[in-house]
Amino acid sequence: MEGVNYLETAPASERRAVVDLAAIRHNVHRFAEIASPARIMAVVKADAYGHGAVPVAQAALAAGAAWLGTAHISEALELRSAGITAPVLAWLHTVESDFSAGISADIDLGISGWELESVVAAARSLEMPARVHLKIDTGLGRNGCPPDLWEAFVGRALAYQEEGLLRVVGIFSHFAVADEPDRPETDEQLDAFRTAVAVAEDAGVDVEVRHIANTPAVLARPDTHFDLVRVGLGLYGLSPFPGQTSAELGLRPAMTLATTVANCKEVPAGQGVSYGFRYRTPEATTLALIPVGYGDGIPRTAAGGVVSIDGTVHEVVGRIAMDQMVVDLGTTGIAGTERTLIGREAVLFGGPGHPSVDAWAEAAGTINYEIITRIGSRVTRVHIDSGQGIRQDVDADADAGASSVPTDTVPAPDVDADGPQDISADTAAAGNR
Description:
The chain has 433 residues and is of the alpha/beta class. It folds into two domains: 21-235, Alanine racemase (TIM Barrel, Alpha-Beta Barrel); 255-394, Lyase, Ornithine Decarboxylase, Chain A, domain 1. 28% of the residues lie in helices and 21% in strands. Strands 11-14-17-16-15-18-10-1-19-20 form a ten-stranded mixed sheet. A hairpin with a 4-residue loop joins strand 19 and strand 20. Helix 2 (21-35) crosses helix 4 and helix 8 packs parallel to helix 9 (185-203). The chain is elongated. The two termini are 36 Å apart. The model is unreliable at 394-433 (pLDDT under 50). Its EC number is 5.1.1.1. Catalyzes the interconversion of L-alanine and D-alanine. May also act on other amino acids.
């Protein structure tokens, strides 16, 4: 399929986030190379970071991921409704969380403390044991049991296990600064995690999976892999390290955000552009209107981001509005001629040959995670498969401290890792316990 422009073959849409499922599979293979023999949990919370949870989950499982991860039980239930039977862990709960639905759907539940009795009550009512992973706060300061309460917490869980109300499947935690490999806090958290695991095992917990590594830890800290690694950002082909690109890590960005130029007109020198006139044209020029704005998830603060039109990169000028932004083409003699750019493809970010998500994150003063995750519902998700050259599906539109990883810690990428694969529901469901 070499030479095929998959943006051109994808169905027409005013605004589209084109997600290449072959890139998802490639990235799973890449992390499997690095983390083996640890298994891969593909984290598909927040609608797979905006990529579409069900198709991404199916592609990840087809590529060998053994587990799926979500924040909420409701997200895990969506996967079950799609026929996905692989192990799923949901780890963030409130007093309104439907633990009964989670247990009934065979969803593993992350437990930090207060939830334990609520989960047990649901299990008792259902007469069905819950599968739980106990979370230790090793220093991040968010969820997780405080270390001084850990031994008693484990004891309570084991007592309920003896009653047949639950099974302790895993012990887990989360790193705070693994994306800054030189910081000592990761070692401190790792030591605390090992201590917590030892306490649990000494108390009689038969731990099936120990997991703490996120994407940056998988890449930079092989001593954190244990039995299972949780791959979030890296699943979507993005680098967690400001000092290294996706390509340098052997990853393929999966999402391309594209639209078409909505207007193209010449303006004189001194023309104000967008709200507040924060930009005025230094000379006569041509402005192109890009019909994407903060209502579609592009940060209003990201003036200075870049857009590729017909392969030429232009900087966004003036304030980004709710529905649109403007680029200065820096020349005249285009508008009203056969050279007009109206209707031409405009790519905000994507893989090789396009601006990167990181460029937009830098312009907005944020992280690449946020840029992809916040792309809104007015942007149609289009799932393609460049490995097979076919479109998989189209989702509904609106209605519906920088430090690079030492190169010797990351194995060289296998460029042939992603051959064509079947991502049918039957294959996706094959990753059972």
